[in-house]
Write a structure and sequence with these properties.
Layout: H1 7-13, E1 21-26, H2 29-37, E2 46-50, E3 53-57, H3 59-63, E4 70-71, H4 72-78, E5 83-86, H5 91-108, E6 112-116, E7 120-124, H6 126-135, E8 144-147, E9 156-159, E10 167-169, H7 182-209, E11 213-218, H8 221-228, E12 236-239, H9 252-257, H10 270-281, H11 302-306, H12 313-320, H13 329-337, E13 354-360, H14 367-388, E14 390-392, H15 398-403, E15 407-409, E16 415-422, E17 439-444, H16 456-475, E18 483-491, H17 505-512, H18 516-522, H19 539-545, E19 563-564, E20 571-572, H20 574-585
Helix pairs in contact: 5-7, 6-7, 12-13, 14-16, 17-18
The protein binds thymidine-5'-triphosphate and magnesium ion.
Length: about 575
């Protein structure tokens, strides 16, 4: 039984299934990058090593007992024949990630294409699906053609619109189309088209670049991400209607989510999950020390929480109240338990919002070491800016001839930021409080950094002396500091590039119908809103609170990806950081 709290909560919690969202997760990503470079590796058990840990391995290795976040020593013992390659330099993964993202965005013409870490992408393909829905010939559905572009009707693929592509959930679907309410029938057709588009995109990723992927298809980011996991690797799953519960039908959304452990729901972080477990069990919930990926011996499911008698947003708010918990936690969690997630797939961008480079240290407390580290981080920052914020100019263009320059900047980040994480002083007994607190200072980005002729090392040296040291002195006025982390970032980027692959398909179709004015208004690159969240989420604090920052804290394209675990020194991508921290806490 479900009761909603205030009338306002009820309005927020109504299902809205107007979107079609595809979630891509590349299979054994780092291993696949090495396989793409050297296809001979495909048939061998292959593992990728960072420090003393296997961060991923291909499915051949998994068949032989290897898994993610396994110690090298254990992996060697279990599978001595495994090929183990070093994956500490993230450049190749970043490059492959961009390549695949660009392909997905271009083919789907999706204005909304959002990366999560290196190996996940959501595409909101609603416009493309809706346009194709109008093109269907109801009398000959089996011989349909999916148009990827209206300006070029030959661009697309044939498909059979009487069946879904790939797998569906639930498998034992017995409700025929005719049984369903009209709104569910439309949803059914839209998801069916989405499944064919997903299938086509998966094939393109594989044929053009050699990567297999796993896709989930539904109407929200939450459900599309979770449902893909049902058929992994090299598979896809569509969560099929009915989505609304009525007298005759159970909602397939809640049917699917109800079996999940609550800790598996993105957006319900570790602490919230524990509070919910304790509430359901009416006693403290203990951990399973053997698990790497979290979870507890006390497997409390979404269904158990959702079906608690008298459950309401207000009750959840009371149960989940705590320091740092958002005021609307009850409504949000009630929504997530019911598969309601209004979160938008972010607008595709040609440049990242920020570039941040960081490293962590066991001890950093001398000026000499500080200067060395700032120099090295600054050099990496300048390099990354030259890669990620520039576009090579074609030497024959007017622009190139008039300026004599080889590239142009796509964005000029206005703000330079230095962040440190000071270690707490030693306690009297020689122990030290673990501190997660970051502090930062910002200043305008000095213009010399955009020089096209300056050597990276020279620009970095100037950046340290003229900009970063003054910021450091403001942060640490007194001597006696000892840092566990340094982060140098440029932030506040706004796209200055005009074009890009991700033009809004709705605009394209309207443009083809002759509405040029409308196209200009709709062009996402002309109408790019200013950045609202220049500031990087305080990751450590988020780690402590771990709630509701699940998507945001995994901002793409920051060298947060290169966070190094202070305990084992392994670089851990942001999205894997919580899992990785837990990994240690279980040892
Ligand atoms: P995942 O998506 O967790 O794993 P995967 O793509 O390798 O495998 P799957 O087929 O199950 O999706 O992570 C993506 C990449 O991130 C992975 O290839 C390696 C890297 N990674 C780390 O560097 N450290 C970590 O702790 C984890 C979990 C992953
Ligand atoms: Mg993956």
């Amino acid at each position: 039984m479900l009761e909603y709290g205030a009338a306002k909560s009820y309005a927020i919690l109504r299902r809205k299934d107007e979107r079609v969202i595809l979630h891509f997760d590349y299979d054994c990503f780092y291993a696949s990058v090495f396989e793409a470079e050297n296809p001979a590796l495909k048939s061998l058990p292959l593992a990728v090593q960072q420090k003393q840990i296997i961060v991923t391995c291909n499915y051949e290795a998994r068949r032989r007992g290897l898994h993610k976040l396994q110690l090298i020593t254990e992996a060697r013992r279990i599978c001595p024949e495994a090929v183990i390659v070093l994956g500490e330099d993230l450049t190749r993964f970043r490059d492959a990630s961009k390549l695949l993202y660009t392909l997905l965005r271009t083919l789907s013409s999706s204005e909304r294409a959002e990366k999560l870490g290196f190996d996940e992408v959501w595409l909101d393909v609603t416009s493309l699906i809706d346009e194709n829905l109008t093109l269907l010939n109801k009398n000959d559905l089996a011989n349909s053609f999916f148009q990827l572009s209206l300006t070029d009707p030959t661009l697309g693929f044939p498909f059979d619109a009487t069946v879904y592509a790939g797998s569906v959930f639930p498998k034992d679907n017995d409700s025929s189309l005719a049984d369903l309410a009209p709104s569910e029938q439309t949803l059914q057709m839209r998801l069916l088209l989405g499944s064919h588009l997903a299938n086509y995109l998966r094939l393109q990723l594989e044929e053009q670049h050699g990567y297999t992927s796993t896709v989930g298809i539904s109407t929200t980011k939450l459900v599309s991400k979770l449902v893909g996991n049902l058929n992994k690797p090299k598979g896809q799953t569509t969560l099929i209607p009915p989505y609304e519960q009525d007298e005759q039908h159970e909602s397939n959304i809640t049917r699917f989510l109800d079996t999940h452990d609550i800790g598996k729901i993105p957006g319900i972080g570790f602490k919230l999950a524990q509070r919910l477990r304790e509430f359901v069990l009416n006693r403290p919930a203990t951990f399973d020390a053997g698990l790497v990926y979290g979870g507890t011996k006390e497997n409390v499911t979404v269904g158990q929480v959702r079906q608690l008698p008298g459950l309401s947003a207000d009750l959840l708010a009371k149960v989940l109240a705590g320091p740092g918990t958002p005021h609307d936690v009850g409504v949000k969690v009630l929504g997530l338990l019911n598969g309601i997630d209004p979160t938008e797939v972010s607008q595709a961008r040609t440049v990242p919002r920020q570039i941040s480079i960081e490293d962590s240290y066991l001890r950093l407390d001398t000026m000499k070491e500080l200067m060395e580290q700032l120099q090295s981080l600054s050099a990496r920052l300048v390099e990354r800016m030259r890669i990620d914020l520039t576009e090579t100019l074609d030497s024959s263009t007017n622009e190139a001839v008039s300026t004599g320059e080889k590239w142009k900047w796509l964005a000029h980040p206005p703000t330079l930021r230095l962040t440190t994480r000071p270690r707490a002083p030693l306690n009297e007994d020689g122990t030290r409080q673990r501190s997660f607190k970051r502090i930062s200072r910002s200043a305008p980005t000095p213009s010399f950094i955009f020089s096209q002729t300056g050597l990276v090392e020279v620009l970095a040296e100037r950046l340290v002396k003229e900009a970063l040291l003054p910021l450091f002195k403001k942060l640490h006025e007194r001597s006696g500091w000892n840092l566990s982390l340094l982060n140098v970032a440029v932030t506040g980027m706004v796209d200055e590039g005009k074009g890009g692959p991700g033009r809004d398909i709705g605009s394209m179709f309207r443009a083809a119908e002759g509405s040029k004015k409308e196209l200009d208004q709709q062009d996402p690159f002309n109408a790019c809103p200013p950045d609202e969240d220049d500031l990087e989420p305080e990751y450590e604090e988020a780690l402590e609170q771990q709630e509701f920052s699940t998507w945001e804290e995994q901002e793409e394209d920051t060298e947060e990806m290169e966070y190094r675990c202070p305990r084992c020194g392994v670089p851990v991508p942001t999205f894997a950081r919580v899992a990785h921290e837990r990994f240690h806490s279980y040892k």
